[in-house]
Amino acid sequence: xxxxxxxxxxxxxxxxxxxxxxxxxxxxxxxxxxxxxxxxxxxxxxxxxxxxxxxxxxxxxxxxxxxxxxxxxxxxxxxxxxxxxxxxxxxxxxxxxxxxxxxxxxxxxxxxxxxxxxxxxxxxxxxxxxxxxxxxxxxxxxxxxxxxxxxxxxxx
Length: 156
What we know:
The chain is mainly α.
């Protein structure tokens, strides 16, 4: 078994271009079946991801609270309705007013280009402490950032 694996590796190393061409041709000749396979994989992965997130929300308190806070801010931003302070004492209207004032100039033309960024990531706060939650979601810790830059940031 191990010997066969080594010979396969050698063959593919020597014939890399030929194999790449063969794979590309196969993909293009079977495009519909490849797309269907991808759709099925997405469904399977989506179920797995949903289960993973559900389990994480039930076991990890910080993650559950952070998810709630992110969702709440986005919900208020989208609806633009008046909300009172929630159970954590966060004034979402104040946050929304601040974000509306600091909105990038081209946001109206391309809103999907931007996301709300926590300057200091939520993972750096102890989200079991209400004072820490207030700090994490204060207007001093929020800003607009291009989506690709925000996704490129890590929780350092």
